[in-house]
Amino acid sequence: MTDIAGVCEPRFAAVREVLAALLDKDDVGASVAVFVDGEPVVDIWGGYADADRSVSWERDTLACVNSTTKNMIALCALILADRGRLDLSAPVAAYWPEFAAAGKENVLVRHALSHTAGLPDLSGLTAVEELYDWESVTARLAAQAPEWEPGTAAGYHALTFGFLVGEIVRRVTGRSLGEFLAEEVAEPLGADFHVGLPAEHDHRVAPLIPPPSLTSEYASSAPPGPDGARREYTGAAISVGDVNSVAWRRAQIPAVNGFGNARSVALAHSVLANRGSAGGVRLLSPQGCEPAWQEVFRGDDRVLRTPMSWTMGFGKFGNTFGWGGWGGSLVMSDPDSRMTVAYVMNQMIDRERREDDRGMEIIMAAYGGLR
């Protein structure tokens, strides 16, 4: 059985056992963290940081968590709202005047956070490299017309979520999303999480490994609906090779290019589960956390082709909230038990070819520890 490093309270031993089993079966390298009442009860890792299995996954190994990054971006917005600097019910154009173009004067901040703004795609995107130009992307979004009346329907804003929320944060604070996240979330908490990864951390990155039998050309795509049909998308597809590039690490694509590990993801997310504080550091009030689990939209998601419940920045699943990333990473919080569970790995699984239950296995094991 694969050796597992780190600390794990005895009552959560099943979490360690699940991670070891995953590393013996599907995973190459991974980390898992569980926080209860804002404190770590599980912080473990194991396996390898490279496909050749020659470099061990260490305590401070980082990986790109793809859309699990969205949880961090939403946290930034909720912090600003709690401080009275951002009105979640105000028009986006109140902070970003150019955004009112093309019939978007009634798009509210809460629409941007709940995937109901009507801007699920970035029109005219022909190359991934275009995403690295913040000013160009946000100007394009500001000029774009919504696909539906904002607030009336939801469609997962896979890439645009980060640019929309990130530009709102920039207009309010004068800082990029990556800067705000570093200075107001990561540094106070001591969370090793980055959007716009500095070069000095490159040696710690575990590149993502494409699903078995696939290559670095493996690209993300919208999932098929029940009838097998896909939502039409004509933009540039993001491949594993793109995500593993230096240019991707340096850029700020806040919906998808956060780098961290399970410890840092769970630590930041646990602030919301623990009514605004973690590790003795308070980032927002108890009331300021509530939008994270209060439902804003319920119904069929036009992009994901499945029924969804969206809150202010998070997917809602029963009494839990959180979101996962392309390939397998995941974070979930339960505000009733004040528990947060995070899983970050490098081996991706193609969910169109097989189910990926790794994160859910970890979560269920963690609930066993609560009992």
Task: Report on this structure.
This protein is an alpha+beta fold and 371 residues long. It has a single domain, classed as Beta-lactamase (3-Layer(aba) Sandwich), CATH 3.40.710. The protein is built from 11 helices and 14 strands. The strands form 4 sheets. The protein has a 7-stranded antiparallel beta sheet, sandwiched between helices. A 3-stranded antiparallel beta sheet has the order 4-6-5. A hairpin with a 4-residue loop joins strand 9 (297-301) and strand 10. It is globular and about 60 Å long. The mean pLDDT is 95.
Key traits:
globular, seven-stranded antiparallel sheet, Beta-lactamase, 14 strands
Shape: globular
Q: Report the sheet with the most strands, covering strand number, pairing sense and barrel closure.
A: 7 strands, antiparallel
Q: What name does CATH use for the topology? A: Beta-lactamase
In CATH, the homologous superfamily goes by the name DD-peptidase/beta-lactamase superfamily
- Looking across the biggest beta sheet, what order are the strands in? 1-3-2-14-13-12-11
Summarize the structure.
With 371 residues, the protein is an alpha+beta fold. Helix content is 29%, strand content 17%. It has one domain (4-370): Beta-lactamase (3-Layer(aba) Sandwich).
Secondary-structure map:
Blueprint lengths: L3 E5 L4 H13 L3 E8 L2 E9 L15 E2 L4 H14 L26 H5 L20 H10 L16 H14 L3 H13 L4 E2 L44 H4 L2 H5 L7 E3 L1 H12 L3 E2 L2 E2 L3 H4 L7 E5 L4 E5 L4 E3 L2 E5 L5 E5 L4 E7 L12 H13 L1
